[in-house]
Design brief:
70% of the residues lie in helices and 0% in strands. It is mainly α and 103 residues long.
């Protein structure tokens, strides 16, 4: 097969052309499959990046909210909020009540 016969595409019109056409169709199908798989892989990578960013944002929000909750649970903060509602801390120490159980 010479260079000019390849350029003229004689391999597509001669008597054994069906084998060549099947080979070309198989190559095209494989190429399309590879292109499709690469697009799917790119989409998965983009989704992973987006989800990682969302995880980081939610983690920072969690830490921020946890710090606020810890601050609101502090005794000094609770006393201050109760003072605005008219409650004051007791001057006396609390009394311990002990119960004896019969076992």
């Amino acid at each position: 097969m010479s260079f000019w016969s390849i350029i003229k595409a004689e391999y597509l019109i001669n008597e054994n052309a069906t084998k060549n056409w099947l080979y070309i169709l198989m190559l095209v199908a494989m190429g399309l499959t590879i292109i499709n798989l690469s697009h799917e892989a790119d989409a998965k990578v983009k989704k992973t990046v987006r989800l990682n960013k969302e995880i980081k944002a939610l983690r920072s929000e969690y830490v921020e909210l946890k710090a606020k909750v810890i601050k609101k649970k502090m005794a000094s903060e609770v006393i201050q909020r109760l003072k605005t509602k008219g409650f004051v801390p007791s001057k006396k120490q609390p009394i311990k009540i002990k119960l004896e159980t019969k076992e």
